[in-house]
Design goal:
Keywords: Repeat, Riboflavin biosynthesis, Transferase
Radius of gyration: 18 Å
Distance between the termini: 35 Å
CATH architecture of the largest domain: Beta Barrel
Shape: globular
Largest sheet: 6 strands, antiparallel, barrel
Function: Catalyzes the dismutation of two molecules of 6,7-dimethyl-8-ribityllumazine, resulting in the formation of riboflavin and 5-amino-6-(D-ribitylamino)uracil.
Enzyme class: transferase
Order of helices and strands: EEEEEHEEEHEEEHEH
Structural class: mainly beta
Helix content: 10-25%
Catalytic activity: 2 6,7-dimethyl-8-(1-D-ribityl)lumazine + H(+) = 5-amino-6-(D-ribitylamino)uracil + riboflavin
GO molecular function, one term: riboflavin synthase activity
Strand content: over 45%
Length: about 210
C-alpha cells in the first residue's frame, strides 16, 4: 500500500526487453541499505518490484521487471532512458497517512486535455499554480467524484470538478516542483488509479441492485 505522496523523483537509466517483458533500471536518491530485493516501489503509479539494487553516488540504481499486463495498461511501456518518474516506498505500519490509500494497481490512463495557470498570492509573493483538465476512460469516470481522491502518476490529488468524462485537479507550486507534474503537457497520458473506497462502494451497489 502507498499514500500517493511522492518521496523522490527518479530517472530511467536503461531499458531492455520487449513487449512481453521489460527490465528497467531507475536511478534514485534512496539509501540502498533500505531497499531489500523484492521491495515494492510505486513508480509513477504502478507498484513494481525491485529485483536488483546497486549503490551509486548519491543513492542507488534499482531494477524492476514489467510484464505484458503492466506494459499494456500503463505508460511504463513508453519509458525511455532519461524519463523522470515519481517514486514512493511502500507504506509501513505507523507511517503518517498524508494522502489517501493507494494500491499501486493502475486502472487505466487519463489524458491531459488542458493546462491552465492559476496565480495566487502567498505572503505577498505571487505563486503560480496549475489547473489540469483530464479525460478519464468512460469505464472509470463513474468512480471520480468532486472532492474525492484520485492517484495520477503516483500522486494523490483532490478532484476539483467533474463534467462527463473530464475532471480537474489543481497543482500547487510545491507539488509542481517536487514531482514530474511540472513537465506534463496537453496530450500526455498519465497512470490513473481511482479511489479504492469508490471502487468498492460501486461494486457493492451493483451487487445489491442485481435481482435475486
Amino acid at each position: 500500500m502507498f499514500t500517493g505522496l511522492v518521496s523522490d523523483v527518479g530517472r530511467v537509466a536503461a531499458v531492455s526487453g520487449d513487449s512481453k517483458l521489460k527490465r528497467i533500471a531507475i536511478d534514485c536518491a534512496y539509501d540502498p541499505a533500505g531497499i531489500l530485493i523484492g521491495a515494492s516501489i510505486a513508480c509513477s503509479g504502478p507498484c513494481l518490484t525491485a529485483v536488483t539494487v546497486t549503490p551509486r553516488d548519491g543513492g542507488c540504481t534499482f531494477e524492476i521487471d514489467a510484464a505484458a499486463e503492466t506494459l499494456a495498461r500503463t505508460t511504463v511501456g513508453e519509458w525511455v532512458p532519461g524519463r523522470r518518474v515519481n517514486l514512493e516506498r511502500s507504506l509501513k505500519i505507523g507511517d503518517e497517512l498524508g494522502g489517501h490509500l493507494v494500491t499501486g494497481h493502475v486502472d487505466g490512463l487519463a489524458e491531459i486535455v488542458a493546462r491552465e495557470p492559476v496565480t495566487g498570492q502567498v505572503d505577498d509573493v505571487w505563486a503560480p499554480s496549475e489547473r489540469f483538465v483530464l479525460r478519464a476512460p468512460p469505464s472509470l469516470s463513474r468512480f471520480i467524484a468532486e472532492k474525492g481522491s484520485v492517484c495520477l502518476d503516483g500522486t494523490s490529488l483532490t478532484v476539483n470538478g467533474v463534467t462527463g468524462d473530464t475532471f480537474t485537479v489543481l497543482l500547487i507550486p510545491h507539488t509542481l516542483a517536487v514531482t514530474t507534474w511540472g513537465e506534463r503537457r496537453v496530450g500526455d497520458r498519465l497512470n490513473l488509479e481511482v479511489d479504492l473506497i469508490a471502487r468498492y462502494a460501486a461494486r457493492l451497489t451493483e451487487a445489491r441492485a442485481k435481482p435475486e
